[in-house]
Amino acid sequence: MASQESILQGVNVLGKVDQVHKKILTPQALTFLALLHRSFNSTRKNLLESRKIRQAELDRGVLPDFLPETKHIRENATWKGAPPAPGLVDRRVEITGPPDRKMVVNALNSDVFTYMSDFEAYPLQPRLSWPYDAALFNGVWAADAREL
């Protein structure tokens, strides 16, 4: 396997990297991102192009449908999916909320089985920038590290 140093050749972080960002942008994380990009960038580009083509079809009025290769599943009344993972079996009480530190602390102090941190629907401020997203991530990271 290639060394971390050789994998990181050509990887540049263009924005300011403060203490919060350094927790996220570790050499290991950057190596992982570099490997992901180099492994899947052509697939990602193909999927984005397919999305444009599909959107044009939808814009022309073509309706979505099931994939023909899944017809046997829809026609088999006895077919069942895999059971949920053990940690997801009991989802009677769960909470979903923004990933800011205050909400994460509230979730940790609540009597729930599951907390889902929702980065996409954070309601208090529009998602404008990487520094803002990194600050949100820091709350979740601190909870995982048992620092809250």
UniProtKB/TrEMBL annotation:
Question: Some GO term, biological process aspect, for this entry: which one?
Answer: glyoxylate cycle
* Any GO MF annotation of the entry: malate synthase activity
Which InterPro entries does the record cross-reference, listed alphabetically? Malate_synth_sf, Malate_synthA, MS_N, MS_N_TIM-barrel_dom
Q: Which Pfam families is this protein grouped with? A: MS_N
Q: Which domain of life is it from?
A: Eukaryota
* Domain Malate synthase N-terminal intervals: 10-72
**Gene Ontology cellular-component terms listed:** peroxisomal matrix
The protein's matches in PANTHER family, at most eight in alphabetical order, are given as: MALATE SYNTHASE, MALATE SYNTHASE 1-RELATED
Under which name does UniProt file this protein? Answer: Malate synthase, glyoxysomal
Query: From which organism does this entry originate?
Result: Beauveria bassiana
Gene designation per UniProt = acu-9_1
